[in-house]
Structures are given as C-alpha cells and as structure tokens.
Design a protein that fits this description.
By secondary structure, this protein is α+β, with helices and mostly antiparallel strands. The chain has eleven helices and 13 strands. Helix 4 crosses helix 5 and helix 4 packs antiparallel against helix 8.
C-alpha cells in the first residue's frame, strides 16, 4: 500500500528529516544537490507552493519527493525553471515504482517534468529524453583529464592555448576564484544573465522576486551536503565570466553561467568551465554535471552522457485532454506546423514555471507575442 502526504518543509521535525536524509545518503543516484532537502527548504522560503511529498508504504518510510504544487493541483519540479534534476528519492527496493502512483495518492493531477531521474518512469507518449553531460575526474586527476581532452580535441586545445597567451600578453594573466564571496560579482552575474535572456528573446526567468531572493539565499547557503557557490574568472582586474553552481559533497552542478561578450574572442566561458572542473581535484568532488542541453562547449569536457526524461506525468483519471491533444499535434503534424506548436509550448512552460500570478503570466505571454520575429 502506498501513501503520500504533502507537507511544507517547516512541518518536518528533525527526526523525520534525518530519516529522509538517510534514504538519500544510502544511494549515490541521489548525490545531485537538486535532491537535497536543503534545496527544497530554500525554495520554501521564497515560494509558498513548495511541498515535500513524504512517501510511505507497507514497510514504513519510503522516501520523499520535493515539488511545487500549483493551483489546480498540477505539479512542477522543485526549483521550477531552474531545476535540472528531480524525482522521488526512495529506498532501493522501490526504484522501479511508478512515480505517478505517488502523485495520485497525494491528489496531484500530474506533473510537468524536465529532468526526471527515474529511467523507468512511465511518461505520456509526448515525453522524450534529454542528454546530460557529465565530466568525471579519474584516478589521474585534472592533469590526466586535460591530457585526454587534448588528445580527443587537438584543434580546440590549440585554440585555448592561443587564448591563454593572448590573455597573458594583453591583460597580464587571468585569475580563477573557485568560491568568490563577492556580492558585487553575484550582482554582475544576475544582471548580465537577465539581460542575456531579454536580448535573445527568452523569458527573463530571473526577473521574478522569488528567483532573485532564491539566488541570493543560495549564494550564502552552506549545509552538510549542499551549498551554492560562485566561481569567477578575471582577465587582469576585469571580471569576464561567472558561474553560480550548486554543489553536493561529490558533485559540482553547473547552473547559472554568463560571460562578457566583449571578451568572447578569448573564450572566457570555456576557460571558466575548464578551471571549475580541474578544481574538483582540490575540493574532492568527483563529477561536474553540465546539465541538459546541447551547448557546443560541453563536448570538449564531458566524459559521458546520461538520460533525463522530459514530458508530463498524468495520473489516473485526471488526464488533461487539451494538453494531450496539443502534444499529439506536435508529433503528428508536419514540421511547418509542429515546430511552432512546440516552441509555443516551451515558451508557455517557461513563463508558467517562473511567474506565480495571473497578471505576471499574462504580461509574459503578451511580451512573447510582441517580440520581434527574429527573437521568437
């Protein structure tokens, strides 16, 4: 028998938190910082729709699943648009359990997923798989890792060495800071990332107040297995690239990244990512998670890729006919029609995941419709 109870993080007592954490600690599949209850706690401080689903079965405590439950009982991943990994954290003997049953027991109609860990999950037929790049330092450490990348991509390695020589000549060298505690640097990152979203015609997901407060809270967060960490790169005294990462005791998850386009010819973003990966040898982290997506830079550093499920989980007897029909049309119609439908859905998901009020959602939809055609 399965039972799911949706609660606020504040309703969890210390004993239950410790029991839930022990389930996560026992399984390396949940090492990502996105599965940490402290991440959910920080979301609960800025979003009232944050819930922890406490999972139980006939054997007792089964695990937990952090999420956002929106009006209408439709769920979104914890962290919403900022989530790269999510799913139920359960005992090893329950790894094959259908997640829709946990949601159904909680009275949740379903969930939009974009990085569901469970490889055996039953998604609607509109679901797909996103590839997530992982960079792993082996026994040889950073030196062996870079030697292998130079062998695989000699032309790329040559370009990076050329960029480093130019930086030495024109700026007197560069400085990498793995854990930059400067709030000025954080402001630089957030302001430039917001500007980047707007300039490229995307919805500014950093615009909402809750997103700003979340980033600033995570910047100062340091707990047992979880932290937010800002890494920066300077050419001379000039800040040119920054990345706000989430880290666990074993994984560095690349998260919010931006660089100064005026210095693009020196590849500051590539240099920053390289230095973050190499710094794992010092900190004892074993893997850098570069998130889902097909960024061209990732191939130069990833050791392998793992699947992350995207789509929707619809619970029994709670299906959404309009949404199902829309997804079906995306698959069935020829490209001139299916492409725009998919783009509209992705933009709608971004706005719905970021904006919490009807007014802000309508403003987001209106802005999307009135953007220049080249930015859509």
């Amino acid at each position: 028998m399965m039972k799911t109870e949706l609660v606020h993080y504040a309703d969890l007592d210390a004993t239950l938190i410790a029991e839930l954490e022990s389930i996560r600690d026992a399984d390396a599949r949940y090492d990502s910082p996105f599965f940490d209850l402290d991440f959910a706690r920080e979301l609960g401080r800025v979003r009232d729709d944050t819930r922890i689903a406490v999972l139980r079965d006939g054997a007792g405590l089964a695990g937990y699943w952090a999420m956002h439950v929106r009006p209408g009982n439709w769920a979104r991943p914890i962290g919403a648009v900022f989530s790269d990994w999510h799913g139920p954290v359960v005992r090893a003997d329950l790894s094959a359990a259908d997640p829709s049953r946990w949601l159904d027991e909680a009275g949740v109609k379903g969930m939009t997923v974009n990085g569901l860990l469970r490889a055996d999950s039953r998604l609607e037929d509109d679901g797909g798989v996103a590839a997530v790049g992982q960079a792993v330092l082996g026994a040889g450490g950073a030196e062996a890792f870079l030697a292998n990348q130079r062998e695989l991509f000699p032309k790329y390695a040559k370009n990076i060495r050329r960029a480093e020589r130019l930086i030495d000549q024109e700026f007197g060298g560069m400085t990498f800071e793995a854990d930059d505690r400067s709030e000025v640097a954080l402001d630089w990152l957030l302001e430039r990332k917001s500007a980047q979203y707007r300039a490229t015609g995307l919805h500014d997901v950093l615009g909402p107040d809750w997103a700003q407060r979340l980033m600033r809270n995570l910047f100062t967060c340091r707990t047992r297995r979880f932290a937010g960490r800002l890494s920066t790169l300077k050419f001379g005294n000039k800040l040119v690239a920054a990345e706000l990462d989430l880290i666990s005791d074993t994984i560095v998850h690349g998260w919010i990244t931006v660089f100064d386009n005026d210095y693009a010819r020196y590849s500051p973003g590539h240099l920053l990512i390289r230095d973050i990966i190499c710094d794992m040898e010092r900190t004892g982290h074993v893997m850098a998670d570069m998130g889902a997506g097909t960024g061209a830079y990732k191939k130069y550093y990833e050791t392998y890729m793992i699947p992350a499920l995207v789509g929707t989980i619809d619970c029994a007897n709670r299906l959404r006919p309009f949404a199902r029909a829309w997804r079906y049309a995306e698959k069935a119609l020829p490209e001139p029609f299916s492409g725009p439908l998919a783009k509209i859905r992705r933009r709608t998901d971004q706005i719905a995941g970021a904006e919490l009020t009807v007014g802000r959602r309508l403003a987001g939809f209106s802005a999307a419709l009135n953007r220049p055609k080249d930015n859509k």
